[in-house]
Amino acid sequence: MSGWSAEDVPAQGGRVAVVTGANSGIGYVTARELARRGARVLLACRSEARGVGARDRLVGEVPGAEVEFARLDLGDLASVREFATTYPYDRLDLLVNNAGVMALPYGTTADGFETQFGVNHLGHFALTGLLMPTILATPAARVVAVSSTAHALANIDIDDLNSERRYRRWVAYARSKTANLLFVHELSRRLAAHGTDVIGVAAHPGYAATNLQTAGPKMAGRGAVERFMRVGNRFFAQSAEAGALSTLYAATAPEVPPDSFTGPSLAGWRGSPAPSWRAPWTRDDRASRRLWTVSEKLTGVAYDVLKV
């Protein structure tokens, strides 16, 4: 894994990938490099203007790339269902659940869920479940959840998943990223029980310069915090190009094991992809099962094809 770069992504000809939040940052780089290696890539983005713009930019950078845009708002389960219903292919080799929000002021999704939990976890949970029949029909397919080292700040509170008792933006973010890892843990258990060669894995970008860091402070009108984040992005963060390597590795490297967590090698901050530390609570079987059951109820999406 030492020195692994985008040039090491294996050939992806004949494969189909969906990347959520692919209009910018790590998602865009992930989509571009998969397309560069021959994958047909569907950019799943909330904004049509930004999604179409990203598609056009990507084709300009990778002439001949097979790239399409489809609208997906992870904060609206009706949009998630429409995306899954109109999914145009009979296979899905890579589902990269990359889109996310971070440390936003308190808000709710279209379905009434706390925004960070609703977008970062429930939206992707529903999307994966609705696409699961197609994923299972694709040999050696992968589901990749993009989490964060910030998951270590907080475990989920199964009795207050929507932060109704008290909202702290960074705790809510951490809980949503813990939920991503618990999802992969339970998904891996269920896939193994069904004897399929499909695997679920997770990755994180370390400290990468994207618009994720500034969106929350900007929404809250916290100018000083926004400026601080911009300075951090400029002088301390690695690029989105480097941050995407962990996702690309988790999505394509042949030796990646199920339920693994890949991140930058240097203190989880920057560097080549490597196995990453994760909090013990993200491998808690009971917690992952409980979160799965609650998520099915909240979203109305039952993973009937993976019942155990």
TrEMBL record:
Top-rank taxon, per record: Bacteria
One Pfam family linked to the record: adh_short
UniProt-recorded Gene Ontology molecular function terms: oxidoreductase activity
Transmembrane region(s): none
Signal peptide annotation: none
Alphabetical UniProt keywords: Oxidoreductase
Family: Belongs to the short-chain dehydrogenases/reductases (SDR) family.
Protein name: Dehydrogenase
Origin species: Streptomyces sviceus (strain ATCC 29083 / DSM 924 / JCM 4929 / NBRC 13980 / NCIMB 11184 / NRRL 5439 / UC 5370)
